[in-house]
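Q: What does the assembled structure look like for these inputs?
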Amino acid sequence: METSTVGQAPRPARTGSGANTPAPKRSRPAAGKPGGPTKKRWFTWTRATPYLLILPAVIMELLIHVIPMIVGFWMSFIELTQFYITNWSEAPFAGLGNYSASLSFDTSQGKQLLQSFGTTIGFTILVVGVSFIFGMSAALVLQRSFRGRGLLRTLFLIPYALPAYAGIITWKFILQRDNGLLNEVLVNGLGIFDEAPFWLIGDNAFGSMVVVAIWQQWPFAFLMLMAGMQSIPEDVYQAAEIDGASIWQQIRHITFGMMRPINAVLILLLTLWTFREFNTPFVLFGAVPPDSANLLTINIYGRSFINWNFGLGSAMSVLLMLFLVLVSGVWALINRKVNRDA
Amino acid sequence: MREQISFRIFRWVVLVPLVVFTVVPLYVMITSAMKPEVDVQGAFQWWPRNLTFQPFIDIWKTVPLAHYFGNSLIVSLAATLFSVIIAIFSSYALSRYRFRGRGAFSGVILSTQMFPGVLFLLPLFIIFVNLDKTLGITFFYQTLPGLIITYLTFTLPFSIWMLTSYMNGIPRDLDEAARVDGTTAIGALFRIIVPAARPGIIAVAIYSFMTAWGEILFASQMTNSTTRTLSVGLQAYATETNVYWSQIMAASLVVSVPIVVGFMFLQKYLVAGLTAGAVK
Amino acid sequence: MKIRILTAGITAIVLAASLTSCSSEPGGTDAEVKTITYWASNQGASLDNDAEILKPEIAKFEKQTGIKVKLEVVPWSDLTNNTLAAAVSGQGPDVINIGNTNAVTFQSTGAFFPFDDAALDKIGGKDRFIKSSFATTGAEGQTPTSIPLYSQVYGLYYNKKAFADKGLTPPATWEELVSAATALTDASTGKYGIVIPGGTVNASMHMAFIFGAQNGGSAFDKAGKPTFTSDGMVAGVKQYVDLLATDKVVNPSVAQYTEGAQAAGDFARGDAAMYMAQTSSGNVLAQNGMTEDQYGVVPIPAPVGGDKIGSFVAGTNISIFKSSKNVDAALEFVKFLTSDEEQAILNKAYTSLPVVTGVEGRFTEDTELLNTWTEILTDFSKPLPLVPGVQAFQANVGGAVVSLIAQAATGGTITTDTVRKALDEAEQKMGSTK
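A:
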């Protein structure tokens, strides 16, 4: 890439230093950069460099995250219904009305939010747990080479590579009551049920949603765990084998031990992604899912775009945000402790 | 290495169910796409009794699939391009500089990543709609540029985070040596860091492209019939008169193949990029 | 206040970008050739089919008036969203079709051109329209923001052969309907007495409205407050859900029918002997291979002693956007589409009923069938509640009925209390903040 022009030309030398300042120097004493003494002036191009580098990102972050979050926070305090979407500055102030509506658990509204919260937690634990177990098992058995390993690896990754809706919509077809494969197997093939069960409505919907999410999610766990395992040096295993350790002991003591940092990142990522899952229920059930599968994100979505009550949706969003901040704070604390102990 | 019997059994116990679990939906997608519509409406058939490729022809007529395909391509490419470029600069800053506000900046990057998209969808919807109204233009709401902006809400932070991790893994001696030789910061970035970080950059690009390609939440509210992307457009095969399952399967297949093939070619980079963060 | 400043901030930042890329729409073309954009709803069998029907008529209009019309057919799934988007952003077509269910909701956004007396005069005056159709054009006591275009009602389709085989006559009361359906049901062969759109939210709201009305219930009181849990509404919804829950004359699979088409398919294939649907379903049945001589239509019957309501006044209205730069041309176009000649042509093509007096429905040669539909419209129909919350009413009550059907299909017992609880939850969602 052509770089020198990009690097030096664009900033007009306003404060006098500019592009012709001698190149290597440190921005701040702590930076650990090689070079000369720290300048006393509050502005130098060197010191500004990191800021200039992050400037586009900062602007974008402001536009797409920070400002919307502030707006969202403000929206949660007004009665933003269909009448005020265009004149939102005229929407009546609701005070904590939206919050008390979300959190009064004796009304259906609050009860639904609470139930939705529980559903989301259960969904997250199941999907992350099973995906991790599947991914770990597959990575372990594919760690040692044997015939067909490459093929299986590729195969397992397909569900992850598939666009989300393509995979989910195929599952939706499989789970159809009358012409789906699942009931064909269960009712006509194995004869487990006399009457074809429903998989997309009622309580079964939750199970269907979990299975479909695992199908999409576990290959990612597999991908990362496999990569992590490959970075464990072979001689560690060989040394252990000379010491007479069985495969199981090697897995327990070497693999699991070395994989700890990867596991931590992986579980965090999986948890965050699963917690905010929207695609699976939306494609399987549409914008109004059965109660058993009413995840928080889709609940907020429905509250806002189906019922045209953006104030309430925003209040629920803010509550969700607070919860996530809390959880990740706890995670960071635990993780710090784990790292220190290790 | 010697394999114990118990481990071999374990291998079979793990692989057989996982292969079935993975393959069955793929099999259903492929075979159902090759069945006539009437056969798909009836009880499920394991093997297509009447093999046909008609659904692959019909999909382009029932729904303006090519148009949606183009929209998806534009949006995904643009979102990828923007996030990669922005991420290169800011990751470099995060990885090589200690500056005031660094903690706050990376804090924002990290934390926004964990919030569900719906948190941003609501205010962005209101902001876009009102911006268009105030300015008297159609630039944000239900347009491709607007959709691209919303896609940056999830592609950008992840790109920055992943690329920073990757750059942290590149030995500092490399660029510091160049800096001593008189290269500017930007010069070092493009001459040393970017080439060294290529796998990481490719990984970021794949990730951004794939998530944008599969995105549904924003697309469902921020598009209209002209700006519709595949993720929402595919639902149009359930029309007022019929639900065309075989066409849905055929279309799913058609929109997936390029992505899956591309992914398979490039997945080793994704692995490298993803694990760099974990094993720094 | 703060937000205004913020908005202004964003505005300033993005303005530069938008200025460069904002394409200048040919809105301000020279005065001689006026162009209006028209979003038509999907009335026919497909979007293409709609375009085929409308294009020759539009050509006629262009020739008569010299006004150019840019046509876009929008599927119903997009129409509400797109309309709302256009309403809030002020960027939209000039003329648009809306479901008359939403007329008041859209009116409340203030984005639509009000048809005052002067405007009404330009399209031939209010008295040209059938009263019940015109009642759907906006909230009572306010200047209407839409004009009726196509009218539809619900009817009970029955399979003539299935009825003849069992020696049955079309039901005149709900009790007769249930007993006929029971006689026609044979679950072991997959034949059922009746099919309902069990998983379809908006159709389920329609059903709740119709059967609620039969039982003297009303979804809103005079002040526009929701009264979903009134005895009449609860009884009506229960009457409907019982078809599946206790009478067992419905295939439980319907709980997954999220598209109206799936129910039509069952009826057309002969898997269900009766089918409650709107006038235009004739088109869908034809698409599925069922010809007009194979079915008959009667009003959806009420229980003995109930109110004889078999439908609400469904249909499509046409509106003009306030932001239109060519209101006069748009009015011209509305006048054209609601003219006697076009009403006859279009309603024939769409198997719907004309909205103006003096034009007879002509979508079928079968005069008996036509008379039944007209009779339902005039004698058995009640307008939907004319309140702005009707959109939310549709989502919440429709959703409640869908979940009740789902419960019934998965073996749950549906009691009056279950129904009341579901409707109560729907009602609470309506006025959530206050």
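The radius of gyration of chain C is 23 Å.
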